[in-house]
Amino acid sequence: MSQTAKSISKHVNFDQLRKDFPVLSQKMNGNPLVYLDNAASSQMPVQVADRLDHYHRYEHANVHRGIHTLSQRATDEYEETRKKVQHFINAKSQDEIIYTSGTTDSINLVANSFGTLYFKKGDEIILSEMEHHANIVPWQMIAQRTGAVIKVIPVDDNGDLDMEAYKKLLNSNTKMVAIVHVSNALGTVNPVKEITGLAHEQGAAVLIDGAQAVPHKTVDVQDLDCDFYTFSAHKMCGPTGFGILFGKKEYLDAMPPYRGGGDMIDKVSFEETTYNVAPFKFEAGTPPIAAGIGLGSAIDYLQNIGMDQIAEREEKLVDYAVNRLKMIDGLKMIGTPKKRASAASFVFDDIHASDMGTLLDKRGIAVRTGHHCAQPILRRFNVPATTRASLSFYNTTDDVDRLIDGIEYVKTFFE
Ligand code: 7TS
After folding, report:
1. Architecture in CATH for domain 3-45+306-412
2. Could you tell me the distance, in angstroms and rounded to a whole number, from the CA of residue 212 to the centre of ligand 1?
3. Residue ranges lining ligand 1, Cβ < 6 Å
4. Which of 323, 315, 322 shows the shortest CA–CA distance to 393?
5. What is the pTM of this model?
6. Helix (H, G, I), strand (E, B) or coil at 14
7. What is the pLDDT of residues 219-266, one digit of tens each?
8. What angle do CA 185, 186, 190 make, to 5 degrees?
9. 337: CA distance to ligand 1 center in Å?
10. Longest C-alpha distance within the chain, in Å?
11. Architecture per CATH, 49-303
12. Helices (H), 89-172
């Protein structure tokens, strides 16, 4: 039996797992909390919270500098996460794993460092219409500085990328293709392996924004063959303020540092400063040590369940949710992609999303409303705001039923 087939057959009691998340068993506005805002930030299991607590109580010291045992211990624990991340996303080496403060920071690092090194006037950066602002604005900023130009892959009426248009945009001036793996606004899962292969044929590098993919499915950066991959700890049961940039070693070795300061140097003098090697040359200053250790603990937690089990569970849940949502009179889905993960967005002609969100909240149901930091794609669908439910493995069909009942209630409110 293959490894995947073996792991899919493992039985996980997801109802039991909910006990790991005490936040879920409280009441909100007098009703049991239904947490459907996982795309914004997922909840943290007690195992990770306890790990953070233990670090703060017994293990805290600065990393990479102390000769003393406590500092060495903190350093070892903090560096252990690098190995865990390497294995989690199947990078070739732990030197390809850079610690950042999150996806936004990771993309800014690549845009600045890669862009400064490689972009010149007339070079082209390809993005898509469904990007989060974090994968738009850093590229616009570096494009302004270097004279590079941004091209945009259109999205069809279902919320899928127009792959034919993408192929036409690619040419020998394309230096970077930066694309979201799973859209936070639509739930679309993009064919990132194919996108990467096509970009490489033109000699362009590829960055994949995996903020909404890594929490929901197995990601293998060697299989995708992408050059950069980014994600955030707080969307995968870990703490805020910490994230990852995977980069292929040949790029990281060539790229200049992004921020200067302690830890990222080799020798410093007023005449000349030389830099540390990757990944450390990209990690200036005292990092969020506890958060880094917390991400390691979150990866342990997710792997203990199994990413294939999580994907299987969530696929069923999201299918159930979409099927029920579609049956509601007057509800229009924004995004009906071929492949979806976690998120489902919808609108009503005569109910504003913020009213929907506020009234659902009164019933203890937490969803996100607004533009989801993805204004271009909302403009594409001609809506100012949507209501988005985003699911995690600890959600249940009961949660979905509560959402549906809630929406029906809000509708009666506006009749
Ligand atoms: N990229 C995508 C696809 C995202 O969904 C987000 C956050 C980011 C980048 C930025 O991540 P950060 O951790 O650096 O902030 N998305 C959302 C969301 O959908 N609702 O709140 C934050």
Report:
1. Alpha-Beta Complex (3.90)
2. 8
3. 39-40, 102-104, 132, 134-135, 180, 184, 209, 211-212, 232, 368, 372-373
4. 315
5. 0.97
6. helix
7. 999 999 999 999 999 999 999 999 999 999 999 999 999 999 998 999
8. 110
9. 20
10. 73
11. 3-Layer(aba) Sandwich (3.40)
12. 103-118, 137-146, 163-169
Task: Provide the pLDDT confidence category of residue 64 given band limits of 50, 70 and 90.
Answer: confident
Q: Is residue 141 classed exposed, middle or buried when 0-12, 13-18 and 19+ CB atoms within 10 A define those classes?
A: middle
Give the domain ranges of the chain: 3-45+306-412, 49-303
How is residue 141 written in tokens?
A: 């900023």
What's the gap in Å between 71 CA and the centre of ligand 1? 33
Looking at the chain, how many residues does it have?
Answer: 415
Token pair recorded at residue 22: 């005490």
C-alpha span between 45 and 351 (Å, rounded): 35
HSE-CB at 216 with a 13 A cutoff on CA atoms is: 29
State which amino acid sits at residue 298: A
Q: In testing the pocket of ligand 1, which one of 41, 105, 132, 192 has its CB within 8 Å of the most ligand atoms?
A: 132
